[in-house]
Sequence to fold (309 residues):
Amino acid sequence: MAEVPKYFAGLTEEQLTAFKDLKSAVPAVINKVAYSEIYGQDLAVESESTDVIILKYLVANTYDVPAARAQLLESLKWRKEFKPLSAAFEETHDPKFDGLGYITEDTAKPDGPIITWNLYGQAAAKPEIVFGDVDAFLRWRVGVMERGIQLLDFTSSRTTIDQVHDYSNVSFLRMDPNARKASKAAVAVFQSHYPEMLGKKYFVNVPLIMGWMFSAMKLLVSRETMAKFVVLSYGSGLSEYTGDWVPKVYGGKGAALKEMEISPSAPAILEKIETTPTAVPAEQQSAELTEPSEPAEKVASSEQTKAEV
Fold:
């Protein structure tokens, strides 16, 4: 195995050993699923980017190698079946989702954060139409996430995605059952298959009366996770945290989100995985993969893996 990249220098000796153990199990995981693509990267090809992705699964499981391996296995199974890159780059989604999600970046900072914007308040008047078909919603929402990921550089400091959730016009007291069902399904997917991908998360236009809910969250999640959350009662205060490149409605000087939206290119691996499932050559395979002894519910147990819709 190649030397551990220098950006892992902050890990303890025990954590480095855990990383090496998980990495050595990856070829067997790939062959068990007959699939190796994740976030547009090929886990069958050793690189700094794939090392970072592997590490994310390990961190999300507090360096528990069997649990991280089990979660990675399930993620590859899900990606093989769900085809998230197809949802992102090949499928035409229903126009009912138009205006609900955008991807932007601060063009003045090449290494600045990628932000996905979730404007569910736009659907407040017609939740049964927008959220009624959970499968369609999930494919659209995963597509937004996957397009945003293509703008990341896992060899740099930009390895996570920030999120803005705009709750304008959303009733916290009478949440539509269709919206609740779609939200629950999306949370399950992001929690299971996008560990440690969330940077900052901004909740904007949150009614003052609901401030107690976010205060209560401090009792349920870790200090590290809570540090990622910023709750704002007024959207116009967002620019104080992101910079003034965001749209004027969020306190910035930028154009409307529709004008700022980025359309990343599809990764080269998309064409490959549509024709030939990837397998690791026999000489590169480690010992046969054995199922972890931990119960399934332990997988993705870290609250830091939670990335809501």
In short: The two ends are 37 Å apart (CA to CA). The first strand starts at residue 37 and ends at 38.
